[in-house]
Specification:
Blueprint: E1 3-10, H1 20-36, E2 40-47, E3 50-57, H2 63-82, E4 94-98, H3 103-111, H4 113-119, H5 128-134, E5 136-139
Parallel strand pairs: 4-5
Antiparallel strand pairs: 1-3, 1-4, 2-3
């Protein structure tokens, strides 16, 4: 079974806790948790206040349970080993289904998060300020919006 999911979530109040050094440890924790849950991480990226992850979801776990485990284990790590107490993720997340055809484009988008945010080329609907407010589980906006020359970056 091939089910691809792009999940996005933010730090509480969009606090910029995820410095490059912290991000490295948090990402390692997320990867380890996914490995334990038999979930393939295809791409993991973000900036100081949010995380994007592209996953191939196994049939043995729900998206909600997987995100709960990723957020819970990384929050525990951040609070007990990396940052002073007080780190937490926002309560919600967004998850988008991704077609096999769109996987390379979504992967590239996630891996180039810093560049996209710096250059103002993020995609509306794929970022926390758009997706979380609209909320919940939904299809990735126009699955081919990540195809070259098709999507419109936000300005």
């Amino acid at each position: 079974m091939e089910v691809y999911v792009h999940a996005v979530w933010s730090t509480w109040d969009r606090a910029p806790f995820l410095t490059p050094a912290v991000r490295e440890q948090v990402y390692r924790c997320i990867r380890r948790e996914c490995s334990l849950l038999k979930t393939e991480v295809i791409a993991l990226g973000g900036i100081e206040d949010h995380v994007h992850v592209l996953l191939r979801l196994p049939a043995t776990i729900t998206i909600a349970e997987l995100v709960k485990q990723m957020k819970g284990s990384s929050s525990h790590l951040a609070n007990h080993r990396v940052l002073p107490r007080g780190f937490k993720w926002q309560g919600g997340y967004s998850a988008f289904s991704v077609s096999r055809r769109a996987v390379p484009f979504v992967k590239d988008y996630i891996l180039r998060q810093e560049e996209h945010h710096r250059d103002g080329t993020t995609f509306a609907g794929a970022e926390p300020e758009c997706s979380v407010r609209e909320g919940g589980l939904r299809a990735f906006p126009a699955a081919n919006s990540f195809a070259p020359g098709v999507g419109r970056p936000r300005s």
